[in-house]
Amino acid sequence: MNLELESEMSENLPSDAFEETRSNALDVQLTKNDMPWTKEETVNIPLTLVTLRGGKQFYVGSAVRGSNLTRIANSLKEEESGLAQKQFYNHLPDFVEKGWSKDIFRVEVPKSIRATYYVKPIGGIKLRTFFLRLDDIEGKPVILKVAVSTKNNEIPVLKEISNTSKEK
Amino acid sequence: MHEICQELASARENGEVIAKDFYLRINGKDFSITVTTQKHAHLYEVPDQPEGTKVFIVEDLSDPKEICRVLSGTPFEKLQTFLVPQEKS
Asked: Which residues span the domain enclosing A148?
């Protein structure tokens, strides 16, 4: 991973997700090993530094790439995208501080060399957000969103980002 | 009953697996299903939420083959409540 200092923020974090400060960001360079579903050999993604109430910090970025994942993300209505973003950020503090959340599922056989997860709140929320956990930067966790979908597109997304075709 | 039954992902709490997602193909159609144990069912209860995902209870989460065997042995009419139909990809 190559890092460059950047001053602009990459993500519009929902303000009511948690109390946080946002400060100078980094660029992270990813390869096809990180996101095998992209056509590009390398991708530069800006990251935002988030500071939680208790002082814990993490980086977050967004990289929805590949024609199928982009199509699925674009099929969401505007309010669905906003809700997915909000639920994603609502779950990150637990994940960053404890390493788990009952609503965060780790993909068994990801295509990426990175640990791959999705946020799947059981209940009335019908949306899923998929993300990679990259190597920590200066001890801070790095979270990269790679897909978002309705619950009815969960499998199509997982077919893109994980190995999912074993016959019984 | 199913043409495909594959473990997709798992949720953990303090290192313990508390739920798993499976991919099922039944009669050519794709579905996802979440399974958990009785012990952890309260974490996933969704009263009065008709659109919520219902979670299928199994005895043990450790063996995906056994879970697939249980799912396969469950009549479709009973399983249907827990299945989330998937778009074609």
From this structure: 3-161
The interface predicted TM-score (ipTM) is 0.93
Q: Mean pLDDT of residues grouped by 10 in chain B (89 residues)?
A: 91 94 95 95 76 84 96 94 90
With respect to residue A168, please indicate whether it lies within any of the assigned structural domains: no
Q: In B, which residues are within 8 Å of A124 by CB distance?
A: 46, 49, 51-52
AA letter at A74:
N
Other Cβ atoms less than 10 A from the Cβ of A90: the count is: 17
**For residue B32, which phi and psi values (nearest 5 degrees)?**
-115, 155
Instruction: Of B61, B68, B47, give the one whose Cα is nearest residue B19.
Output: B61
Q: CB A124 to CB B46 under 8 A?
A: yes
Write down the pLDDT at residue A5: 32
CB-defined contacts A:B, below 8 A = 97
- pLDDT of amino acid A100: 87
Residue B32: what pLDDT? Answer: 95
Among candidates A100, A155, A166 on the partner chain, residue whose Cβ is nearest the Cβ of B30: A155
**Nearest CA-CA distance, residue B75 and chain A, Å:** 17
Confidence of residue A54 (pLDDT cuts 50, 70, 90): confident
The Cα–Cα gap between B31 and A10 comes to 34
User: Quick check: is A116 in a domain?
Assistant: yes
Query: How many structural domains does chain A have?
Result: 1
Mutating which of A72, A74, A154, A161 best tests the B interface, going by the most B Cβ atoms within 10 A?
A154
pLDDT for A16 beyond 50: no
Tokens of A76: 């969401």
Q: What is the pTM of this model?
A: 0.89
Q: Are B11 and A101 in contact (CB < 8 Å)?
A: yes
